[in-house]
Amino acid sequence: MAAMEDMMPLMTRATERTARLVRTVRQEQLGLPTPCAEFDVEGLLTHLEWVAELFESLAHQGPGVERGRYAGDFPERAERTLAAWSRSEAWEGTSPAMGLPMTTLAHMYLVDMVVHGWDLARATDQEYEPEPAAVTRALHFTGQMVEMGRQRGAFGPPVAVPDDAPPFDRLLGLIGRDPAWKP
Predict the structure, then answer these.
(1) 180 domain-assigned
(2) Most exposed of 45, 93, 99, 158 (fewest Cβ within 10 Å)?
(3) Is 170 within 8 Å of 139 (Cβ atoms)?
(4) Does the predicted TM-score (pTM) go above 0.70?
């Protein structure tokens, strides 16, 4: 399973980077704004928890899941998600719930971890440097899927960035984030 062997290390490291950021969020930071306009920090953490739960279910060919309330357990949920995706059968076929190939879903998860890690770091004034290989993979995938992502409400209108901007800035601009965003 080339896709699994290639993607699992990227997914794992991106998840671990984001989980490290999540663990340092303080109670008084939950109301801070984030670069993702629809979420404050608590909303972003709730979204990450939902993403982890959703992609764990999808890896088991399960249903979509409803977004719950903030629980404060993203790192634990993310560990279960990675365990679910570490099984070779998780990479086979198409998701009954989403109607997309499992490899596409794995890429969607990677984009979420990479970008939302940045969102959280910016909102809470933390250092964040995504792995270059994860950024390259996320940028390539997003370039192919951006219109579908916009239609489904996952991405905002593009933000102009210079053609020679670093790949991560181009990824952020492509999905509707301003790489220069500050709280």
Answers:
(1) no
(2) 99
(3) yes
(4) yes
Can you give the pLDDT at residue 72?
A: 96
- Distance in angstroms (rounded) separating the CA atoms of residues 41 and 32: 6
Q: Tell me the residue range of the domain where 42 lies.
A: 2-175
* Position 8 in a domain: yes
Query: Structural domain tally of the chain?
Result: 1
pLDDT in tens, 91-130: 999 999 999 999 999 999 999 999 999 999 999 999 999 9
> Residue by residue, what is the 3-state secondary structure of the chain?
CHHHHHHHHHHHHHHHHHHHHHHCCCHHHCCCECCCCCCEHHHHHHHHHHHHHHHHHHHCCCCCCCCCCCCCCHHHHHHHHHHHHCCHHHHCCECCCCCCEHHHHHHHHHHHHHHHHHHHHHHCCCCCCCCHHHHHHHHHHHHHHHHHHHHCCCCCCCCCCCCCCCHHHHHHHHHCCCCCCCC
pLDDT at 1: 58
CATH code of the domain in which 150 resides: 1.20.120.450
Low-confidence stretches of the chain (pLDDT beneath 70): 1-2
- CA–CA separation, 33 and 41 (whole Å): 6
Q: Does some domain include residue 37?
A: yes
Cβ pair 98, 91 in contact under 8 A? no
